[in-house]
Amino acid sequence: MTPSNMSLAAAPASANTSPDIAASQAQLKIEGLRRPAAAEWPTPYVEVDETRLARNMQAMQARADAAGLVMFPHVKTHKSIDLAKRQLALGARGITASKPSEALVFVQAGIPSIIVAYPIVNASSLDRLLPAVKAHGTQLRTIAASEMGVDALSTAAVRHGVDIGVFLKVDVGLGRVGLKPNDPAAIAVCQKIAAAPGLHFAGLLSHAGHSYAATDSENLAAVARTEAAAITGLAAMLKGLSIDVPCLSVGATPTCLGAPLQAVDCIRPGNYVFLDGTALRLGICSADDLALSVVARVVAANDTHFIIDAGSKTMSSDRGAHGMGGNGFGIVIGADAGSGAGVWTLERMSEEHGFVPAGGRTLPLGSRVRVFPNHSCATIANFDSFVLRRDEGEVLTLPVNARSCQT
Ligand SMILES: Cc1ncc(COP(=O)(O)O)c(C=O)c1O
Q1: What is the 127 CA–ligand 1 centroid distance (Å)?
Q2: 7 backbone dihedrals φ, ψ, rounded to 5°
Q3: How much of the chain is helix, strand and coil, in % rounded to 5?
Q4: Is the Cβ atom of 342 under 6 angstroms away from ligand 1?
Q5: Triad 219, 223, 227: Cα angle to 5°
Q6: What CATH architecture is 112-269?
Q7: How far is the CA of 252 from the centre of ligand 1 (A)?
Q8: Which letter, b or e, does each residue of 309-328 get, where b requires 16 or more Cβ atoms within 10 Å of its Cβ?
Q9: Where is the D-serine dehydratase-like domain (predicted)?
Q10: Which residues pair with 134 in a beta bridge?
Q11: C-beta separation of 395 from 387 below 8 A
């Protein structure tokens, strides 16, 4: 096995593919990973390629526009005010955030409309966010999946004199947060939201994160169709009970990028801006689309491996979103001018070290590599800042503004 096809074990060619075709597909993929020599910066650092970033952002916005859907991209992917503003400039109507403290960073930056897509079950979780929402006149929507959640949101809304739109979170298959569409409690929670002081019913929201386990594009399309059918069916029932359903919101990069967009109102993809080894493995992007990589340095070598200065505190230990992933922790290529054509797999990590099986083709000590992570959202969240690399080679550093906003 050559170093090149070792790395391709994470994305095998189909069993029906002839060896010649498989070899040329592998070559194509390796070519797509090539990037200019990395900037001289202390390693390890995150590099975001501005051209690819812009292309990814524009492509998703264009998909949403063509389908008549509103974009509320999830900023947990980049946690960057600058990148959120680029998404708005392209046509996004607002953003989605994970937690109140993450949302607060973007409220203070003047983002006009925010969905906090996280189940809040105690009122005090909103005590810092709501005064800022009030001061900035931000439109705030969030989710509830329980009566306790509705009570907490209502208490907070009344306490701070803020009106909050609340979606019912519908579990369409991930099995994480939400009520099943056929659960009678779903209707009861919607009625409770509509009647609660300080709240209004915003509609239905789902996240088909289980799409990360899809095995092919038909599978992916089936997940998207099932998700849309589940929430449109529930919306029809609510309308039959005279409950207005203002918005149906779905969103996961695999279903938004790798399947036809469904007839809903709003999408909230996050990962699409950077993409990563997981998206590549799913077949929803090409190697040339990967906008984020980690530049690291070879700091040691032994008989079997070379060791790089990027371990789990740099890359994260994610094998992929929602713990669904392929082999290894990243795709490794040379990052110096004149680096050869080798491609390796980041096989395992300790906190500050990454183990790369050399496969008989080691890299010199001190040379640099570029690692395309399995899960770019989890990788950039380990950094205070990232390097944005422009086409002409100019680089600038941008802060990861909402880093470690976990409350
Ligand atoms: C509620 C919700 N919406 C949207 C997203 C965006 O998903 P992705 O990063 O796959 O696009 C996530 C990701 O975890 C999520 O939890």
Answers
A1: 25
A2: -70, -25
A3: 40, 20, 40
A4: no
A5: 170
A6: Alpha-Beta Barrel (3.20)
A7: 5
A8: bbbbebbbebbbbbebbbbb
A9: 291-390
A10: none
A11: yes
Q: What is the pLDDT of residues 251-297, one digit of tens each?
A: 999 999 999 999 999 999 999 999 999 999 999 999 999 999 999 99
Q: Whole-angstrom Cα distance, residue 254 to residue 335?
A: 29
Tokens, residue 386: 């990232």
* C-alpha separations of 402 from 108, 197, 380 in Å: 11, 31, 11
Q: Is the CB of 119 under 6 A from ligand 1?
A: no
pLDDT per residue as tens digits for the range 173-184: 999 999 999 999
Question: Looking at the whole model, is its pTM more than 0.85?
Answer: yes
CA distances from 340 to 128, 343, 367 (A): 52, 9, 12
Q: Where are the domains of the chain?
A: 6-50+279-399, 112-269
Out of 2.40.37.20, 3.40.50.880, 1.10.357.10, 3.40.50.1860, select the CATH number for domain 6-50+279-399: 2.40.37.20
79 lines ligand 1 (CB under 6 A): no
Does 258 contact ligand 1 (Cβ within 6 A)? no
Give all strands (DSSP E) within 55-94, no chain letters. 70-71
Pull the structure tokens for residue 362.
């080691």
